Structures are given as C-alpha cells and as structure tokens.
Amino acid sequence: MNAATASTTADARALRFVALLATYLQSANLPLPNAALRLIQGSVSMTDDQAGWIFTAYLAASAVTTPVAQWLAGRFGLKRVYQTALLAFALGLWLATLAETPLAFIAARILQGLAAGVLAPLSMGIALETLPAERRPAFGPKWTALVLLGIASGPSLGGWICEHFDWRPMFYLSLPLVAYIFLAVTLLLAEKKAEQRPSFDFFGYGAFTLGMIGLQMLLDRGERLDWFDSPEIWTEALACALGFYLFAVHVLTAKAHFFNKALFADRNFLLSTAIFFAFGFVLLSTMALTSPMLDEILGYPPDTTGLLTVPRGIGLVGAFLLATRAPAWVDACWLIAAGIALVAYANWLMLGYSPLMDWTPVAVNGFIQGVGLGILMPALSKVAFSTLEPKLRPEATGLFNLIRVYGSTLGVAMVQIFFFNNTQAVHSALVSQLTPYRTTLPTSLPALEGLNHLATHQAAFIAVMGQFKILLVAMLVVSPLVLFLRKPVSAN
C-alpha cells in the first residue's frame, strides 16, 4: 500500500468515525434529560404538563427536517449543509444551558431536533461513502444499533452527570465532541452537490408537515388550554385537518409526490409500517413514564433513575444484533409475533408496579420489553422491504423511519395527556373520601398539606399504571396484523 492510498484509507476511517459519533450524539441527546426532569423543571419553572415537551419538541422538529435533508445536501452541498447542522446543534446545546424559562428551554430543544433531523441521514450517507460497495449492505444494521445504543444510554449518562454535577453539564459535555466533528468534516470531507438540481415535492411535504405539527401542538397544548375552549386549539385543529386534507388530495391526484402511492399498494410494507408506528409509540413513551415515576414519585436519585434504563438498553441492543443474524430459514413473521408478545407481556407486568417495590421489577420488566423491541425492529424491516420493488426501497426507508419517529412523538404526547387527566381524576376521587364522617382529619395546615401530598402521590402513581395500560393496548391492537403478513421473499 502506497502512502497516498494509506492516507486516503485513514481519512475514510476518520470520516466514518466522526459520522458515527454524530449519529450517537444526536440520538443520545434525545433522552439525555430523562433522568433529570425534576431538576430541569425546578430550574426553569416548568410545570409537570410541560415536561413532555422536552421529548416531543426534539422529536417533532427532527421529523420536520429528516425528509428534506438529502434535498438540502444535493441543492446546497453536503459539506455545507452538514457543517450548518453541526453549528445549529451546538447552538441548541448551548442555549439549553442558558435557559431560564420553559419557552427558552423548549426552543433550544427544537433547534437541537431540527439539526438532528439533518445530521442523522447525512451521517449515514457519509459513512456509507467511506465503505466499499460490498460492505455497504451490512452497514445498515450496525448504524441502527448505534442509534438504539444512543437512545438506551442517554438517560444513564444524563442521570450520572446530573447527580454528580448539575443538569447543565449534560449539554456542555457534547460541545467539544461537536467541535471535533466539525473540524474533522472541515478538513476531510470534500464538497459534493448533485449534478442537476434535485426535485422535491414541497407541496406534499408542506401539507403533511402542517398536518403533523397541527396535531402535535393540539396534543401538547390541549390540556393546558382546556382544549376547544381555546382559540389556539381551534387554530391548531384546523391546521391539522387542512394539512392532512391537502396531503390526501395531493396523493390521490398528483403523479409524483412526497410519498409514492405504490408504497401503500404493498401489503407487507403497509402492515409493517402500522406495526412500526406502534413500536415507536412504545419505544420512548415507556422511558418518558418510567423515569419520572422513579425520580418524582418514588424518590430515586438521578443516577439510579438513569441506571435503571440500562437493562432495557442491553435487551434492546443485544436482541437487535442477534435478530439481524437470524438464519434465513427463520420466518420473520414469527419473530414479529414473538417480539409483540414479549413487549405486551412486559407492559402487562408493568401494571403490577407498586409504591412499595424496589428497583428489581423495573430492571427485569425493562429488559423483557427491550428484548421484544430488539427482536421486532429488524424482523419488521425484513418483512416490510422483502416484497417491495428495489426502486421503491430508498423512498420506503425514509417513510418507514419517519413513521417510527411520529409514533414516538405522538406516543409521548398521548401518555402525557392521559397521565395528567387521570392524576386529577384519581386525586379528586381520593380526596372526596376524606370527610369528617369517614375519618379524623388533621386541623393544622402542615398536616393538611402532607395529606394532600400523599393523595397526589398515590394519584400520580395510579395514573402512571394507566399509561402503561395504554402502551399494552397499542401493542395488542396491532398484533392481529401479523396474521396478514406474507412470508418474506429473498431480496433482489
């Protein structure tokens, strides 16, 4: 090997490393604040019903930019767009550390999400370009495993940092890594543009995005604004309806559009995508429920709260890597059924949580759910793409992953809505029984405050159990779809 070849190979490895590092950073920063919600809420005066925005703001923003990332790279240049996304991501991290109000913190998370939505697909593209053609097909599962590793390890890293320092260093520590990635990309990545100006269905993209943003805002803001008693909620509902109406008409009438109609004609892809939506619904919603339960209700410190997500992460990543290596004779439809069954079983076990339990049920049930999700993801991908025409697979990949992201963001929003509704309802039911005719009520103000705190504590825990039931129902609803899947055929 001559010096030039060695240098080129070393540069390719360095580029692949920083692309993978960027992939990990953008996925780990999504759940990073999960174990430190109580401290973040206290620092920025964020109410409980706003806590879910920490996740949904990042997710929804990333879903907006992910579909257009490749077009931006082709139009303005891969290197320029990637560097801009890195700078925006770093700015979002820095602004999060400066936030003193809920609005400022959520705005920083939105900026992080917008940048992450560009970084994720472009990082994969950069990494693939550094590999020989024969090694590229095997790279996809490794990249997905890294994304899952970031999601799984983010809360434990954030919890440890928060316990020993503060919540702001969680974001500070990512800044040097982003600077390193930016420097490596500046020195090693050659600028690349499309030879011809790329086309993109901005009308279809805009209509679909308007519908999803309207729906997300409706769910996130509805509880706080008393739903349709607020003009804002009516505006968001109308935006949602208009967006989806325009998108449906566009799909039915236009020859070329954001989502190819041929994708919806493939039964395996359509059914697998529906199940993958439920996968996303459960993936992050469980995390959004478990950590606050441990931190705020059961009183675990942030580092312990974060550590209790590790068994779930081990099960998720480990089962994913094993499932991708399943022998060809293993029917992926059976793996999907097994994955759904394990996730549903774990969610059913979570209904048995008690305020008197120790950490063991959380670790065990999380591990079981992680194994089920890890089996489900590669099996669904195999079935979804096995019957598609090869020319449709790139577009199908984008839609498939986008549906998972929207499943996650809508799932977090839904469980937050029902959590606060149920907490209020159960609290009212409990307090209504505290009358002088049923029990001896304390008369001092501190004692009454303590009694109210106890009732709120019990109501919140009961409400969390109700949200685990929603996750169980979500998996049970999609489980019959497995019966209609066709056995995968060999990929062309």
UniProtKB/TrEMBL annotation:
Superkingdom to which the source organism belongs: Bacteria
UniProt keyword terms in alphabetical order: Cell membrane, Membrane, Transmembrane, Transmembrane helix, Transport
Matching Pfam families: MFS_1
The species this protein was found in: Pseudomonas ekonensis
Similarity comment: Belongs to the major facilitator superfamily. EmrB family.
PANTHER family assigned: MAJOR FACILITATOR SUPERFAMILY MULTIDRUG TRANSPORTER MFSC
Matches recorded under InterPro entries: EmrB-like (IPR004638), MFS (IPR011701), MFS_dom (IPR020846), Sugar_transporter_CS (IPR005829)
Membrane topology designation: Multi-pass membrane protein
Stated name of the protein: DHA2 family efflux MFS transporter permease subunit
Residues annotated as domain Major facilitator superfamily (MFS) profile: 15-491
Subcellular location(s) of the protein: Cell membrane
Transmembrane segments: 51-73, 85-108, 114-131, 143-161, 173-190, 202-219, 234-256, 268-289, 309-326, 333-353, 359-380, 401-420, 459-485
Main location: membrane
